[in-house]
């Protein structure tokens, strides 16, 4: 472009007649097309068009069933002329649309996975298969896997081309185990959950231990297994100070010895006293069906929180207990 | 001559107004017939009003209809209990009409069948903001007043835990704090509401106020109330004494006691009050709250306890909270357990229709589209059948 401009500027000079041919020859299809070249057939090497005409993009020649992994065999930046998708990206101007893909910097900035289409991955898998061993035939569903192999270890290996093969992220080890597969009684399970804190997920009953404090993967794996062992054994032990567990420490609501029980007992005793019915004792009062219903409703209310069903259940049980119609 | 003319003109005007009402309400009557085929083709007044003004006789058939409370009754029964917007509405329409709704009917049914020998049952009205808990409580209070119960009404317990000035250290118990202003206001209103009982009930102990004043055993309760009103320093203690005496004596059968507290979740939450050294005050350190907590326990008999949970006016509670456990907290729930929770919900279509009718009859809705089907649908959508929201919307029309 600069070469083309230069002679044109020279041509503008009044005395540069010799360069006139030059300048006209320099105006090929890229410039405003002159109807006929001023000089005919006086093309030299320089006059050959310095810029090729822009070819139509490769996408127009692509067949629908082409081999895509050969277009993008490795991770490569987004090439608008090589990707046949009408993709748009960018914030639109007022009453406009996002920018098209040609010359779109946004599409270049983001990572693309065009080299990892399912077809490409299948090919990778096929290539890797010869290095793999066979999956054991007996483990054909998830339950069997869990039954025989309850502990899952997750590690990641990183391969990259660079000055060093080592990657500090490779030392992370994640150990996952379901508590239902461990031999824990009620007290042990509660103690274990309290010990691990956030690492336990209530909905899936999975304990996840993620270690990366040692420099090597092997060491981290040993540490994770050690942690699991220690947790298991410690949760089975009962310490002296565990006797001082208060109501605030309880994980779920326990009705026995709670204030709710006391209240209902007092109320019932007063009712009985009002009816001059003195031959009752506590166990009998607490054993009736109404009290049982009430107990269930209070426990569900406290454990599950307020919602329509628990509240209406509670209301019904209280009504029956207090003999209200 | 002139007088006759003016009278004629005024009569013509009245006719015109009547006409307007008549034509205006014809359309909704047809619509009402559309909406609910069982509505008999009477005047639309039947949909929104009932002439039964004794709450004791309210039943299922009156559901959705407004009943009238005579204005003198209003002053006697509710010296402080009505929500401010309702008071404004009463002043505007020159009549006090409450809608009869299901939660109140349910409560009335329970109250009519109370066994006064059994410990007092606690009923808790809960619901979202603006659904009508306070007015349902007022309906109940009116019923009990008509039945000649003694009404112990705390209009808004939240007022006792926030923005109180002049906290004094209690003379009775050094750890607690007095609230003379709130206590004296409440005593005045209590006196207005329950004049006739104050001379009947006698105190059963001698109370010494200070070196010179004391109330002897056997003197009427009115004296204690007077003492509290005149000597503001002792107002909180007077309130405490009133509560204690009433609790003790309600079992004797001379009177039935209704304890009605609006915003009872204030008793167990936090307060916004601080001492001089900026340390926060817990609710139980306030003598009024402490005594009130004793009142809502069910260790007495001879009456009933009706409570309302309210997020409006509560401190440190999120706006969307309305369920009992959320507002009461663990402590409150454990203290009130066992109670009967009663949900107060938004209007159902019949009640909504009735409310709109009531506003139309009082010429409150001036917008020309207010009585059309579309207008009503719009109001229904905008307010989501929430009574409080509907009332606010109609104020603009």
TrEMBL record, chain A:
<feature type="domain" description="Small ribosomal subunit protein mS35 mitochondrial conserved">
    <location>
        <begin position="166"/>
        <end position="237"/>
    </location>
</feature>
<protein>
    <submittedName>
        <fullName>Small ribosomal subunit protein mS35</fullName>
    </submittedName>
</protein>
<dbReference type="InterPro" id="IPR019349">
    <property type="entry name" value="Ribosomal_mS35_mit"/>
</dbReference>
<feature type="compositionally biased region" description="Low complexity">
    <location>
        <begin position="23"/>
        <end position="33"/>
    </location>
</feature>
<feature type="region of interest" description="Disordered">
    <location>
        <begin position="23"/>
        <end position="47"/>
    </location>
</feature>
<dbReference type="InterPro" id="IPR039848">
    <property type="entry name" value="Ribosomal_mS35_mt"/>
</dbReference>
<dbReference type="Pfam" id="PF10213">
    <property type="entry name" value="MRP-S28"/>
</dbReference>
UniProtKB/TrEMBL annotation, chain B:
<keyword id="KW-0496">Mitochondrion</keyword>
<dbReference type="GO" id="GO:0015935">
    <property type="term" value="C:small ribosomal subunit"/>
</dbReference>
<keyword id="KW-0689">Ribosomal protein</keyword>
<dbReference type="GO" id="GO:0006915">
    <property type="term" value="P:apoptotic process"/>
</dbReference>
<dbReference type="InterPro" id="IPR027417">
    <property type="entry name" value="P-loop_NTPase"/>
</dbReference>
<comment type="similarity">
    <text>Belongs to the mitochondrion-specific ribosomal protein mS29 family.</text>
</comment>
<feature type="compositionally biased region" description="Basic and acidic residues">
    <location>
        <begin position="51"/>
        <end position="63"/>
    </location>
</feature>
<feature type="region of interest" description="Disordered">
    <location>
        <begin position="40"/>
        <end position="63"/>
    </location>
</feature>
<dbReference type="InterPro" id="IPR008092">
    <property type="entry name" value="Ribosomal_mS29_met"/>
</dbReference>
<protein>
    <recommendedName>
        <fullName>Small ribosomal subunit protein mS29</fullName>
    </recommendedName>
</protein>
<keyword id="KW-0809">Transit peptide</keyword>
<dbReference type="GO" id="GO:0005761">
    <property type="term" value="C:mitochondrial ribosome"/>
</dbReference>
<dbReference type="Pfam" id="PF10236">
    <property type="entry name" value="DAP3"/>
</dbReference>
<keyword id="KW-0687">Ribonucleoprotein</keyword>
<dbReference type="InterPro" id="IPR019368">
    <property type="entry name" value="Ribosomal_mS29"/>
</dbReference>
